[in-house]
Write a structure and sequence with these properties.
Blueprint lengths: L23 E9 L3 E8 L5 E8 H6 L3 H12 L9 E6 L3 E6 L7 H6 L6 H20 L5
Antiparallel strand pairs: 1-2, 2-3, 3-5, 4-5
Length: 145
């Protein structure tokens, strides 16, 4: 389980075998799911901020979801687009699987819709263009959800 792509801004600093939990400083938790948690982390050597999703291996195995999680990592590792959450690193230890992705510091669209944020017409037009670009990219990559 690893990501190593020379086009990724921070992923080239360490090979996939070298990246591990010790290369990140956990800053704070930002979410919790059925298998694990998401936290904001800072990469110690670069200072770059990321979102780190970590899931319990035993829970995934117990619920028969390990294959799905590994497929998610494989899919995310094959994608890179400015309007998608990109995966920069992935690794595992004895207890957990880790995915280090772009941090959406301002929150995602769902967050803003749930908090009834009002968007200007210009903001909506930009958002529709960004969504169209991301969907076009996914279609060209033959990704279906």
């Amino acid at each position: 389980m690893g990501v190593n792509s020379s086009s990724r801004h921070d992923a080239t600093l360490l090979s996939e075998e070298d990246v591990n939990f010790d290369h990140f400083q956990i800053l704070r938790n930002i979410g919790k799911g059925s298998f694990g948690k998401v936290c904001i982390v800072q990469k110690k050597d670069s200072g770059n901020l990321f979102a780190m999703k970590y899931v319990s291996r035993s829970m995934c195995i117990g619920r028969g979801a390990l294959g799905g999680v590994l497929k998610e990592v494989e899919l995310l590792a094959s994608l890179e687009h400015p309007f998608l959450v990109n995966l920069w690193f992935s690794f595992q230890d004895e207890e957990d699987l880790f995915m280090v992705c772009d941090l959406l510091a301002g929150g995602d669209l769902r967050y803003h819709l749930q908090h009834q944020v009002e968007f200007s017409e210009t903001s909506v037009a930009l958002l529709v263009c960004e969504l169209g670009s991301a969907l076009d990219y996914l279609q060209k990559k033959r990704v279906l959800h």
